[in-house]
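Sequence, structure tokens reproduced for absentees:
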Amino acid sequence: MNGVPFLKMNGLGNQIIVADMRGRADRVTPAAAIAINATAGTKFDQIMAIHDPKTPGTAHYIEIINSDGSLARACGNGMRCVVQFSASEGAQKSFMFETLAGILFGEEHADGLITVDMGTPKLARYDIPLAEEFADTRQIELQIGPIDAPVLHSPSVASMGNPHATFWVHDDVWNYALDRFGPMLENHPIFPERANISIAQVLAPDRIILRTGNVALA
């Protein structure tokens, strides 16, 4: 990645590197990603590598690399950073990007709000994917803690281009040590492609507190 222009950004708590790979034939290798993540100043959750478009009509092809060098299919927080980066280059504010998850749409609005349409959630076992069959992916058998008194249990799972598991709770989402058990659940054998782990509390029909990692979103 010598000579590659990049920005270190924050996407709702996720550390994002937006790397401009346009006009280049090379890509960010797993070894390069691991080395970049090992340095304090460039530590990241995802690298959003912007490449020249592959499909006519799209602005860029985005390759998403995790800190362990593996590829991710999609990343909503990272895509918002890409939208802001792209919008800063000119008058265009709406974009169509290509990723491993397919075509994604993003826009920077007049008030500065950045939105990304991640598409329709996929709920089928093989789309998420899951290593086991469940009758209803809105509630699967997975728990933390003792069998007779689990701390968290029965998450909803879906794919938004990458796997997500959300545990629903009645009390404060900050009452749970997500920073401790999140990584453990992320790498649970039931998730062959790992998973994003979240905790959600429904306060009202139109208001949910969602905690992902160390971030709480209302």
Remarks:
- The radius of gyration is 18 Å.
- Residues 151 and 158 are 21 Å apart (CA to CA).
- The mean pLDDT is 91.
- The chain has two domains: 6-117, 143-217.
